[in-house]
Design a protein that fits this description.
Two copies of one chain form a homodimer. Chain A has 220 residues and is α/β, with parallel strands linked by helices. Helix content of chain A is 35%, strand content 28%. The first copy, chain A, is built from seven helices and ten strands. In chain A, strand 1 and strand 2 form a beta hairpin. In chain A, helix 4 packs across helix 5. The radius of gyration of chain A is 17 Å and the shape is globular. In chain A, 48% of the residues are buried. Chains A and B meet through helix 5 and helix 6 of A and helix 5 and helix 6 of B. Bound molecules: adenosine-5'-triphosphate (2 copies) and magnesium ion (2 copies). One adenosine-5'-triphosphate sits at the interface of chains A and B.
Chain lengths: 220, 220
């Protein structure tokens, strides 16, 4: 489904070379549920962005469904992501001028789904994450944990084959986090491949397999 | 140091009335270390914003050092906050165009501290939260957990008598969170009063006392 082959991601900042990801290879197959753990700054977000093709590696290759992403055009990559990949960003990136409902509908509209169906599906997704009472609120009119849940609902908008979630429970209390894990497990049982980067040990243990990142490398 | 007397905070959103905080009274004295826990959406951030006088209650009163904040002018409130209150926001609110060092120096500059001293103190604070190697990076050039730590360092810029921290470990792994707790305990032993809103049970248990919020009210 998605594969990274010896990927590196470097940043040059004035004199310094920062190696955020230093030669990582991994494969995610259909039905997989992988949790990536590791200290703050170890490269988890960078790796997730490479897997989701929202960032390009300095060297190495990323394959989406067998195709090398570098041979795809920007438009093809965007189309692939829209239809098959759901991304929950660590910073959420919700649109502040749109309501929760509109934020979740947006990828559906981009994928060409009819208005009535978008509204129904968006409502169902938001209700599923406990936000049925906050549909018409904008991101600035809800709590941090509520915003996080809108971001999760939006990632699921087009029923992706692959869900990439960066710290999806960072703002949630124990009981709401447990509900998020149950949602992920249920999606995974229905066929969604899931990769989460997380500090939440409950969530990591609820995945099918775990991988530890330290200083940009996978610890064996 | 700070006192809330029967404070309420309501929002009107189209037809709905949302009671984020429904009649809360509490006192924070010098040397206090209070952890406020509760489900996502229960009113923790709202309460912290009221205590820090960055938001006004719909009814009830907030007293800072014995003075009712509503009788202070905006300038007096801002001055009081600058000199005595450190706020770590759930959304950090770092300035994206400034480096980590400049972000931490900013409140010091506003308080009139000389350039050389600002730089020294900001360096020391960032080193203390493990970011000695990221001084010249901008918020967009570091990880989520690193941004969170810059926000904590900035809140401590003017050695506040009162630290109000909203989810200060939400993006941190276990070991970095433990370091954050140690920092807070050490500040508290040196006289800083601390109120944290948190989902991190380790942090909550490391405080001197805990309070649970549910639906805008304190659970006895
Ligand atoms: N634009 C950038 N320029 C330079 N360095 C960067 C940039 N973005 C990230 N980094 C560095 O790359 C490393 C990995 O960052 P990344 O965001 O992947 O970490 P993370 O594991 O997600 O951390 P956290 O758990 O705190 O979210 C960090 O040391 C960070 O400072
Ligand atoms: N501007 C607003 N307009 C309407 N309702 C709001 C607004 N801001 C917050 N709320 C609501 O007030 C309630 C309390 O929000 P608050 O941010 O204080 O919760 P919280 O306990 O900090 O949650 P979390 O743990 O998710 O950060 C929530 O139900 C939220 O939807
Ligand atoms: Mg990250
Ligand atoms: Mg909050």
């Amino acid at each position: 489904l998605v594969e990274a082959r010896d990927v590196r991601r470097e940043y040059r900042l004035k004199g310094d070379l920062i190696e955020a990801v230093r030669g990582i290879s991994l494969e995610v197959s259909a039905g997989d549920f992988l949790a990536i753990v590791g200290p703050s700054g170890s490269g988890k977000s960078t790796l997730l962005h490479l897997l989701g093709a929202v960032d390009s590696p300095t060297s190495g290759a990323i394959y989406l469904d067998g195709s090398d992403v570098t041979v795809m055009t920007d438009a093809e990559r965007a189309r692939f992501r829209l239809e098959h990949v759901g991304l929950v960003f660590q910073r959420f990136h919700l649109l502040p001028m749109l309501t929760a409902l509109e934020n979740v509908e947006l990828p559906m509209a981009e994928a060409g789904l009819a208005r009535k169906e978008r509204e129904q599906r968006a409502k169902a997704l938001l209700t599923r994450v406990g936000l049925g009472e906050r549909l018409r609120h904008r991101p600035g009119e809800i709590s941090g944990g509520q915003r996080q849940r809108v971001a999760v609902a939006r990632a699921l908008a087009n029923r992706p084959a692959l869900l990439l979630a960066d710290e999806p429970t960072g703002e949630l209390d124990q009981s709401t986090s447990a509900e998020m894990l149950e949602l992920f497990q249920s999606l995974n049982e229905d066929g969604t491949a899931i990769v989460v980067a997380t500090h939440d040990l409950q969530l990591a243990e609820g995945a099918r397999r775990q991988m530890t990142l330290v200083d940009g490398k996978i610890r064996e």
